[in-house]
């Protein structure tokens, strides 16, 4: 007979604690989890960029970053929040550990197992729906695979790490509804301590239909816990009702006590904070779990002071970061969904946020492999899995010491397959080595296929320059290890994995022209080649619609693009951005502008310009150009 959830709960909490302890023990290891900075964003909505003062301010910020004097920088992190917290706790040479440094954690973890989290994408003349991938929606695959029990297995180790990040006077607010709130309350008592429970807040709202056989559900629950015996608390007030004001006016006439000027101190019943329901609400971003700025403003102002650090590990639409920014708090937010990270990045740029970092989990695939294969795994183990799922047989050991080479024979043609390491970027050197092995290894091969996890920014240019018809580069699915873990083995996943073609961007020749204060840079998009549509999680009808858009207007696939005018080959520093929905640029909500024209300080010699683009499905591509100095 199956055990009840209440019987399972002690073991779930114990195992969650053990999982968190293993992560904490690994923080001192040489190969601990790190964050990679994918972009240093200096928000600039101005498309024409005639504002020289703004350009100078951005350049000053870049100089501060280059000299290490910029101080704190807010962060948007893409990836599993368990790994993100491990990296924040570990710290690195540039950023110390944030253990005990976070003043407020607000989380709104997904809690509806039946929710529809497909991404709705609007292209010119076409509406698409992308089904969630496993890696981007782990909360609706692994988290709900065994109902509430698996949800609790997900949340408990994360709560343990959150407690480690909290300052001694810090608080955590956990936003849930009736699906799992009672069970999570027990887990919170176990992890943070029952004496640290401060309150249960009822976040009330109106609107919606009226169920026929039950009462309408009109509130969420927010659990508030402090880490220690002392915590930050700033009393918040709501405006007086008209009845209270009338009674106050009457009391004043009778020389009685006057009303407070601030209003009525709030209690744990919040009927006055709006919920985003109307499609005409100016805040609405069409993100299913979006919370209102009023809600986060109340929580942040109540639990923190200016300059304090706020953390949201299920960032969603980015309301926490957006409000923290407006209130002068420091912030970190993360999400596993690429669409969510894209929405957050655009939202922060749109509101003119201070410069912030867009980061990802360093060596994510290595960490996922360790989780699946054990901490003693080797890269060769992972390469053998990739080759097997691609359908290649391994080469003899004497010819294949790294275990990353395989072979396929079909129709009288021999194909060499190279599975590159997740620890490195697949680029020009890898491609040239693969060609040499194709031509000389074991008497030569007809063609070679390179399977890569991550790619150098100039990979598209490298492929174009090589012009080798017997070289193919394919992308290893980023959710491969998550799917492998969920399926329980290679055999159950065989035949279901698609290795897709590489997406890449091309530019027209960029131009530099002298100005009174420096020079003007003009960068123009040329073409965008999408990652194979067959690899995107669409149904057949929507895939056909996508093909039509690709054929007619490939640049319409671009969701966001940014320019670094002085790329150092390490950190992409974007000082100009445009994105769909930035109607200040062109008035067109469905397209980005294809040309960036902005002023930069003059410099001698060639300028290395890097452009990064993100398409509507969240896939990134980069291209680098060396632009010669303008002639007099």
TrEMBL record:
Listed GO biological process terms: methylation
Name this polypeptide is given: site-specific DNA-methyltransferase (adenine-specific)
Residue ranges of every copy of the DNA methylase N-4/N-6 domain listed in the record: 102-343
Organism superkingdom: Bacteria
Organism whose genome encodes this protein: Pseudoxanthomonas composti
Catalytic activity of the protein: a 2'-deoxyadenosine in DNA + S-adenosyl-L-methionine = an N(6)-methyl-2'-deoxyadenosine in DNA + S-adenosyl-L-homocysteine + H(+)
Pfam short name (any one): N6_N4_Mtase
Keywords: Methyltransferase, S-adenosyl-L-methionine, Transferase
GO MF terms held by the record: DNA binding; N-methyltransferase activity; site-specific DNA-methyltransferase (adenine-specific) activity
Family: Belongs to the N(4)/N(6)-methyltransferase family.
Enzyme Commission number(s) of this protein: 2.1.1.72
Keyword Transferase annotated: yes
Lineage: Bacteria, Pseudomonadati, Pseudomonadota, Gammaproteobacteria, Lysobacterales
Gene3D superfamilies: Vaccinia Virus protein VP39
């Amino acid at each position: 007979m199956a055990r009840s959830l209440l019987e399972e709960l002690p073991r779930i909490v114990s195992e969650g604690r053990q999982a968190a302890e293993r992560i904490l023990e690994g923080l001192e290891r040489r190969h601990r989890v790190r964050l990679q900075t994918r972009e240093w964003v200096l928000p600039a909505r101005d498309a024409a960029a005639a504002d020289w003062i703004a350009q100078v301010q951005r350049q000053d910020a870049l100089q501060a970053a280059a000299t290490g004097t910029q101080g704190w920088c807010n962060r948007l992190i893409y990836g599993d929040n368990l790994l993100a917290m491990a990296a924040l706790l570990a710290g690195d040479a540039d950023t110390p550990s944030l253990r005990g440094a976070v003043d407020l954690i607000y989380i709104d973890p997904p809690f509806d197992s039946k929710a529809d989290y497909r991404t709705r994408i609007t292209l010119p003349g076409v509406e698409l729906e992308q089904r969630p991938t496993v890696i981007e929606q782990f909360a609706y695959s692994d988290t709900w695979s065994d109902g509430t029990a698996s949800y609790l297995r997900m949340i408990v180790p994360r709560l343990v790490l959150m407690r480690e990040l909290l300052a001694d006077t810090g608080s955590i607010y956990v936003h849930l509804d009736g699906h799992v709130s009672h069970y999570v309350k027990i887990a919170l008592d176990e992890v943070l301590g029952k004496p640290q429970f401060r309150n249960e807040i009822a976040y009330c709202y109106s609107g919606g239909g009226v169920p026929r056989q039950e009462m309408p559900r009109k509130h969420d629950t927010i659990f508030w816990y402090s880490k220690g015996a002392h915590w930050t608390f700033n009393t918040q007030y709501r405006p007086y009702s008209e009845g209270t004001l009338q009674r106050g006016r009457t009391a004043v006439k009778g020389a009685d006590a006057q009303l407070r000027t601030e209003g009525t101190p709030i209690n744990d019943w919040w009927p006055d904070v709006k919920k985003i329901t109307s499609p005409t609400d100016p805040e609405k971003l069409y993100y299913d779990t979006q919370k209102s700025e009023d809600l986060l403003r109340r929580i942040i102002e109540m639990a923190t002071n200016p300059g304090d650090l706020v953390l949201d590990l299920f960032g969603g639409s980015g309301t926490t970061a957006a409000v923290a920014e407006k209130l002068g708090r420091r912030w970190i937010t993360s999400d596993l969904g690429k669409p969510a990270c894209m929405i957050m990045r655009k939202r922060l740029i749109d509101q003119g946020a201070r410069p912030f970092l867009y980061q990802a989990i360093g060596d994510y695939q290595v960490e996922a492999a360790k989780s699946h294969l054990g901490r003693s795994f080797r890269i060769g183990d992972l390469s053998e899995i990739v080759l097997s799922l691609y359908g290649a047989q391994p080469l003899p050991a004497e010819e294949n010491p790294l275990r990353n080479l395989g072979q396929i024979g079909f129709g009288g043609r021999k194909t060499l397959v190279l599975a590159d390491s997740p620890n490195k970027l697949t680029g020009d050197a890898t491609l040239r080595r693969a060609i040499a092995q194709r031509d000389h290894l074991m008497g030569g091969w007809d063609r070679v296929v390179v399977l890569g996890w991550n790619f150098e920014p100039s990979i598209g240019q490298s492929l174009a320059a090589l012009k080798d018809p017997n070289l193919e580069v394919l992308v290893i699915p980023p959710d491969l290890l998550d799917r492998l873990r969920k399926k329980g083995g290679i055999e159950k996943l065989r035949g279901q994995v698609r290795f897709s073609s590489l997406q890449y961007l091309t530019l027209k020749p960029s131009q530099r022209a002298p100005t009174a204060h420096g020079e003007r840079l003009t960068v123009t998009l040329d073409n965008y080649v999408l990652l194979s549509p067959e690899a995107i999680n669409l149904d057949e009808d929507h895939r056909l619609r996508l093909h039509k858009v690709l054929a007619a207007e490939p640049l319409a696939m671009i969701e966001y693009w940014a320019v670094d005018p002085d790329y150092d080959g390490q950190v992409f520093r974007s000082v100009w951005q445009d994105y769909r929905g930035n109607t200040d640029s062109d008035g067109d909500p469905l397209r980005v502008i294809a040309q960036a024209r902005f002023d930069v300080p003059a410099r001698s010699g060639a300028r290395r310009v890097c452009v990064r683009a993100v398409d509507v499905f969240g896939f990134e591509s980069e291209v680098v150009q060396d632009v010669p100095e303008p002639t007099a």
